[in-house]
Amino acid sequence: MRAQTLFASSALFRKITQFLLLVALTAALSGLALAAQGIAQYGKPKYPEGFTHFDYVNPNAPKGGTLVLPNPGQRTSFDKFNPFTLRGVTAPGIELMFESLAEGSADETSSVYGLLADDIEVARDRKSVTFHIRPEAKFSDGSPVLAADVKYSFDVLMSGKAHPRYKTTFADITSAVVLSDRLVRFEFKNNNSELPILAGTLPIFSRNWGKKPDGSMIPFEKLAFEAPIGSGPYLIESFKAGKSIVYKKNPQYWADQLAKPLNIRVGFYNFDRVLYKLYSDDAVRLEAFKAGEFDAIVEYRAKIWAKGYVGSKFANGTLTKKAFINHNGAGMQGFAMNIRKPIFQDPRVRQALGLALDFEWLNRQIFFDQYGRINSYFTNSDLSANFDGPSKPTDGELKLLKSLKTQYPQWVPDAVFGPMPPAPSTAPPGSLRQNLRKARELLMHAGWQYRGGALRNEKGEPFRFEIVEDGGFFLRVISAYIRNLEKLGIQVDVRTSDFALHQKRMNEFDFDMTTVRFQDSQNPGSELWDRFGSQAAKEKGSDNVIGIQSPVVDALVSEITRAQNRDQLRTAARALDRVLWNSYYVVPQWYNPTHRVAFRKEMRYPEPPLYYQAEPWIMQNWWKEESK
């Protein structure tokens, strides 16, 4: 009896000890909060545990067929499959081969839901996040997705082998720690509510990508046409170098093998194949669409949309054009000045150059009144300091700005404390003449005066710079702008090149002025370091093509990334907007309040979500109804 009692006591002791060890281990692993399939940066995700699909998809969309698309953007060729390195031009659609641990929905601003991961646990102190990888998740070669692959992906992207934007974007994630085969923890430098979501969106690829038959590895930065080993729904079926590429649905795609449909993949990727055809120029691409060579096109040029998408096939319904309302934040688009160049370092000069752009004339004469004016770095968003008109800073904004003015007086323009000024306008009672007169006065105060047939500085050097563009489609706009600059005595040269050469110049910051598009998100965060951060200005290939190196901008980006709720984010973003806008780094252009899409009659689509880019939406959520 005594032996039985001792045995029972011993067993109970072991159970208690095991339980306490488990509790201690759990606490040691990071003091985790309640785990969930989805997390939100602020509050709770829209979709509850156990949801079946996103509201904006058709869960019963027919599967099959081939989606044929033209080259997205301005690329007319490609020379690699690796989208994570700096050099070269990536094949269109390559993102179909890669996935992340979690993925956001298109009708929320700051939530993600488990994709490769089936469980997400954010530490109570928010200094780490742990993901449990689904046992079913597999790469395209059939190997399992493991925590070691996640760590490998993170380490490579943070190394000098990958594009420097990753090192900047993920800078506040200090490490990826393998806890077990399918458990990985990301550790953070600080308490930043965006970092768990950011970690979840890290692209994941296999450690075996680039492995040769003899076991040696091709250096990551030298991977070119080696087929990626990712976990995405498609594989490369064939390609013609620089001309076309065909992706086929992976018959063993892991998410299609689950006993229960994966909710964030229901209604997605409905085509058996996706074919991209790359055309030499915009005119050829449009004629190819009319001839039936591909299924859908997103049009970015107002004149072509107004005059080019006409003809018998549009009349009889074979082809359709439709403008979908654009709820996305429009961000900033404009002629960006490279302030590394001495000619652009005086803000009065930069302001003067902005006054020479006559948007109202361009919109009326060239754009068929289809555009709205860019008036902020967060245009079309409540994060814009101009969202409610030229309003004065709130108390929260003033607190931030006054503190920074005390610390860095030369970096905070006095104008930030008043109403947010609108973009220069020539609408009555204003005029181009008045704007140019003001520009001439600014230039004079900056040391530039007209003499000897040109605007010159004290040394007698003419004011001359070069505008570079990736193609000739913008030349009519540039010509109109140059005519106004010439009235000020400014000489401008224009140079166009193909996309690859232009991208190389951007990577090297080898330009004076160029058109930029800083695409906004509904919930900006760490990507702003790459776009405006001082360190990024020194990193070739970064998004900070302007060359901004401002302690005030750095401080406000930091405030944005540390925001704990939407109100704090709005306050910090509007303060940053005021500083950037009143520093005149960019001559603001315009934005399109719609997504312009033309497509064949067989194409079908669900109701669009609130926030989306048109090309990915077509690829992800549309389907084709074959003619009977």
From TrEMBL:
It comes from the Bacteria. GO terms for cellular component: ATP-binding cassette (ABC) transporter complex; outer membrane-bounded periplasmic space. Residues 112-537 form the Solute-binding protein family domain. Coiled coil: none annotated. One of its GO terms (molecular function) is peptide transmembrane transporter activity. The keyword Lipid metabolism does not apply. InterPro entries: Peptide/Ni-bd (IPR030678), SBP_5 (IPR039424), SBP_5_dom (IPR000914). Pfam families: SBP_bac_5 (PF00496). One of its GO terms (biological process) is peptide transport. Keywords: Signal. Residues 1-35 form the signal peptide. PANTHER family: ABC TRANSPORTER PERIPLASMIC BINDING PROTEIN, PERIPLASMIC BINDING COMPONENT OF ABC TRANSPORTER. This is ABC transporter substrate-binding protein.
